[in-house]
Amino acid sequence: MCGTTENPTSNSKTSSVSPANGNGGTIPPSDHVLNLEQGDPAVYESYWSKMGDKCTMVISGSELMSYISDFTSVCWFLEPALEAAVRRLHRTVGNAVVDGDRHIVVGTGSTQLYQAALYALTSPGGPEPVSVVSAAPYYSSYPDETDYIRSALYKWTGDAYTFNKTGHGPYIEVVNTPNNPDGTLREAVVKNRGDQGKLIHDLAYYWPQYTPITRPADHDIMYFTFSKSTGHAGSRIGWAIVKDKEVARKMSKFVELSSLGVSKDSQQRAAKIMGVICDDYENCKSTDNSELFFDHCRQIMADRWERLRKVVEQSVVFSLPNYPQKYCIFSGESAEPYPARAGGTANDAWGWDNLSLKLGGCVDLED
Question: Subunit structure, briefly (predicted)?
Fold first, then answer.
């Protein structure tokens, strides 16, 4: 394991450690470092390799050439096949409400959708930028993603807990659940602010391989990503489920202005893969679900957590949290969370307040 260490709520990095941890244990030399910054969900590649040609599709040179998918739709560059596949996948898993008047907006990954949601909730602008907050520890990219275009519409303000006590004026709270980096289930924390606040729910990890699905999420703006749900990060596909038609229209306008839509090739591939997952679950006649996607990947995560806990139990430097079991409506049984990242603590002698390992990414416990 190699790379850098990073506090998930700051950009400060630690590159050296003291020779002893104060508890009688020996701290590894400074060239033994952990990659806590770069993640890549190739952990599921072996599963998709075994699927052979089931997910293969052929696109001819004359297909998918137009900018337009459906000009009558709020999100006119959303391929109808992807919209249908997204709704079907969520119905199969039960992790989000997609029926009724919910609108689907496609983006180039969840990063673009986050920006689109901020734009939609703050335009037209007021006299001051709207504060954007999230409860610490929050996803380390939120501050940069919020402020990098230096928008006059919104600005990153920091920890939602602090804002709850001292903040004033309108705000947007980003609720990331299960949370990156610590895997906990989250709710909004800013209280008693009347109608000044708006919520964005980042549900990238709300899939059954990572956490029990306790209920279908039903929020004003929810976004998901293909990279975390199936592991296909290279396709750069994300989607938002939006209640308000005008908000969905503004989000679509942001995507139009920033990238003039989203790759139709990627959308069609995503639709194909989602369809294969749903077909397998709907056509399964056996009680053994170990070869079905979410069940198989949940076992991968469980095995990695088991190995990691065995290692950490022998350490005097690190500790890991214990996550309570909850009833999962997808599996029909009580289940333990297996977050894609292992949030924990490290001894003060290392100078870290917290630690986050990406179990679904480049921290490979087989190495």
Answer: Homodimer.
Contacts for 155-161: CB closer than 8 Å, 24+ residues apart:
155/129, 155/130, 155/131, 156/132, 157/131, 157/132, 157/133, 158/133, 159/9, 159/133, 159/134, 159/135, 160/133, 160/134, 160/135, 160/136, 160/188, 160/189, 160/190, 161/135, 161/136, 161/189
CA 190 to the chain's CA centroid: 21
Distance of CA 174 to the CA centre of its chain: 12
The pTM assigned to this predicted structure is 0.85
- By the 8 A CB rule, do 205 and 229 touch? no
Tokens of 65: 């050439």
Encoded tokens for 353: 């307040």
Q: Got the DSSP string for 280-303?
A: HHHT--SS--TTSHHHHHHHHHHH
- Classify 306 as helix, strand or coil: helix
List of domains in the chain: 42-50+290-364 (3.90.1150.10), 68-281 (3.40.640.10)
User: How does pLDDT run across 200-221, given as a tens digit for each residue?
Assistant: 999 999 999 999 999 999 999 9
Going by C-alpha positions, the residue among 217, 215, 237 that lies closest to residue 225 is 237
SS3 content of the chain, % helix, strand, coil (to 5): 30, 15, 50
Q: In the prediction, which pLDDT does 320 show?
A: 86
Short-list 325, 318, 323, 280, CA closest to 17:
318
Residue type, position 265, single letter = D
* Side chain identity at residue 233, one-letter code: A
- Please, which residues have CB within 8 angstroms of residue 171's CB and are 6 or more apart in sequence? 130, 131, 132, 133, 157, 163, 190, 193, 196, 197, 198
